[in-house]
Design goal:
The protein folds into two domains: about 160 residues, no CATH class; about 200 residues, Porin, CATH 2.40.160. Helices cover about 25% and strands about 25% of the residues. It contains nine helices and eleven strands. It has an eight-stranded antiparallel β-barrel with strand order 1-2-3-4-5-9-10-11. The protein has a two-stranded antiparallel sheet with strand order 6-7. Helix 8 runs antiparallel to helix 9. It is rod-shaped and about 150 Å long.
């Protein structure tokens, strides 16, 4: 049994003053940060204060721009040129697919740059029936397929300005270089040439003006067979369809204007829907020269992945570098008992311990062997040990002396401390840890605070308990700390 005198101030008074003491410790620990904050707030304009207050009220996740973004798009190219009127051709045979790969670098939440390459096709058809006489119309037909390769660079403006946005638009302007080859569909899959008739059919024999040669017209209409286009553009073109018969210019500069939306699926994965209007410097994209440059629209969908580090919220960063696996095996005081099972985590080096990591106490008097100057203490008739902090039995005279001394000394210390509680004030009442004066053994419930394992609670140890209480490193309550301080005053 450890000797602890029953001397207490008013619980309400102590608790209220101790809360002030803890608040003071907290303010001291965060003093520099608090000073900077209020200094900054005092000089800020009302607008800045309002913006800061709004940010604190609704904090937003920052943009994680990552290191590099790569993506793939698939889409349809739709040409705006000179051919494409009165097509009579369904959608699937007019629009062709294109594929694009892109690499992007985002500098901040507003802008970035990118490189891309695209390969694809675009096609169109036109068929005009020109009235020549009352009995006959001449059919005029053009069709082409443009097989192109394009690569370039662009600057991009982002409109997702915080990391919580799921859908956000973007805009990009670029410059690129395009090369292409043109083909036309002149024969079917049996290599039979198409003959376009004025009645809208396609046959294997030529359409004849009945006003000029009625007999041949009857022969051709009787003996001809109807054909269906296979839309296989097998014949390469070298000259334009128009009367100029110009040699095709097979390359051009292109100035694309991109607009689209980004749909964030995960932190580094997104889907994009976009349209890029491509302004070219060439009038031959549709194999027809009219004096006006051709343009085209690339409409696409794609998936993009950003290489980078996962965003970690500030409240999670404190655990980022903790090796949780090592917590079950670490042994800070090297006593052979892992920290997770160690009830006495600050055992001095070389001191034998029990399975719970606490120093051995062979006579069970509450004083460990390495501090016990009376290693074979005897209990009293009730089976209790009444010893000092060195394990020495206390006589009735010594107990009476301790009572008498504490009546004045303990009450005086405690009252002085609670008048203006502070850590500096606490240090004024530190006792000499090496003193051989009579003092009760350290109760087991305070062993957690005896960091240097000398059997005495010192002001610095109380300070450490308070620091670890605020940081969450130690599982104690305010009442536990108050009891510890009370015991601190009971030592001498």
């Amino acid at each position: 049994m450890n000797f602890i005198p029953n001397i207490h101030l008013s619980p309400i008074f102590k608790k209220s003053t101790f809360c002030v003491f803890l608040l003071g410790c907290c303010l001291i620990a965060s003093g520099q940060e608090t000073t900077q904050k209020y200094t900054s707030d005092s000089t800020a304009t009302p607008q800045v204060k309002a913006e800061k207050k709004a940010e604190e009220k609704a904090p937003r996740k920052p943009i994680n721009k990552g290191f590099l973004t790569v993506g793939y798009n698939i889409g349809i190219s739709n040409i705006f040129g000179d051919i494409g009127n009165n097509t009579g051709v369904n959608f699937s045979n007019r629009f062709k697919f294109a594929h694009q790969l892109a690499v992007e670098k985002r500098f901040n939440k507003y802008v970035g740059v990118g490189l891309y390459g695209r390969i694809g096709k675009m096609a169109d058809n036109e068929r005009n029936l020109i009235k020549v006489s009352e009995n006959w119309k001449r059919s005029e037909q053009f069709n082409f397929e443009n097989r192109y390769t394009q690569f370039g660079a662009y600057a991009k403006a982002y409109f997702d300005w915080h990391g919580d946005q799921v859908v956000a638009p973007y805009l990009a302007l670029g410059v690129s270089y395009m090369t292409f080859n043109l083909y036309t569909d002149l024969t079917d899959n049996n290599n039979i040439a198409y003959e376009y008739w004025g009645d809208g059919t396609i046959r294997n024999l030529q359409d004849i003006n009945p006003d000029e040669d009625p007999n041949q017209f009857q022969i051709n209409i009787t003996e001809s067979s109807l054909l269906q286009r296979d839309y296989t553009y097998e014949t390469k073109l070298t000259n334009t369809f128009d009367q100029s018969n110009s040699t095709i210019k097979q390359s051009t500069l292109v100035f694309p204007v991109h607009f689209g939306f980004r749909l964030r699926l995960a932190e580094f994965i997104e889907m994009r829907l976009s349209s890029a209007f491509n302004i070219t410097m060439n009038d031959h994209l549709d194999n027809f020269q009219s004096g006006k440059n051709d343009n085209y629209l690339f409409t696409s969908a794609g998936f993009y992945y950003t290489f980078g580090k996962k965003y970690v919220a500030p409240e999670e960063q404190r655990y980022q570098n903790i090796d949780f696996a090592s917590l079950t095996t670490s042994d800070a005081d090297a006593d052979g008992v892992s920290d997770v099972d160690d009830r006495c985590p600050n055992t001095p080096s070389g001191v034998p311990v029990d399975p719970s990591g606490c120093p051995l106490d062979d006579d069970n008097d509450g004083v460990p062997n390495h501090l016990d100057k009376e290693p074979h203490s005897q209990s009293n008739e009730s089976g209790q040990f009444i010893v000092d902090r060195y394990g020495r039995a206390l006589s009735d005279e010594q107990i009476a002396l301790m009572e008498e001394k504490r009546k004045g000394l303990h009450m005086d210390r405690s009252e002085k401390f609670y008048e203006a509680p502070s850590l500096d004030k606490l240090k004024e009442f530190d006792i000499d840890a090496e003193s051989d004066q009579v003092s009760g053994a350290l109760p087991g419930k305070f062993h957690y605070a005896d960091y240097n394992q000398n059997g005495v609670i010192e002001a610095d140890e109380i300070s450490r308990v308070i620091d670890e209480f605020f940081s969450g490193e130690i599982d104690v309550a305010v009442d536990d700390i108050m009891d510890l301080i009370d015991y601190f005053f009971e030592q001498y």
